[in-house]
Amino acid sequence: MSDTILFFGGWAPIGRILVVGTAMYLALVVLLRVSGSRTLASMNAFDFIVTVAMGSAFGGALNAKGVALAEAVCAFVLLVGLQYGVAWLQMRSPFISGVVTNPPTLLYFRGAFLPAAMQRERVTEAAVRAAVRKGNLGSMAEIEAIVLESSGDISVIKAVGDASAFGAEIKQQPHRPKSERDAGDP
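The structure corresponding to this sequence follows.
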């Protein structure tokens, strides 16, 4: 007969889950507080991987009898340390930053969707318009630009006279075919 337990396997496994789960939760809260707000900020691809790995380590240690609390906390420290190290490298190396984080992408600018950028980023016009509605804007005429951020969020920027919020990466007006340009555009 197998060791499969369907409904209740005794109080010892439940007690282990309560003790180990509480201790791991507290350890994770302490580690996240020590590592700073960057760990909990909007996620890039590396942050997503670390988050999934932490969830997997938490779940594995919580449910696997063979994983000690010290091993689970060590896994958390390793993952938070890697995340901190990559963030530190990103701040000091444009190359590492470019490898880990996608630059923001302009999807709409001064009255025109940018189909090549939208296709490259796999964003539909419907998704862009949904972001506009979510921003409580009723007309595309109210919008200067729409940007797909590094985090995957879509930012809608109302018409402005000063485009300094665009930053160096997207400050330049995108090249559009002459047929799409307004008569007054430079």
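Confidence is low (pLDDT under 50) at residues 176-186.
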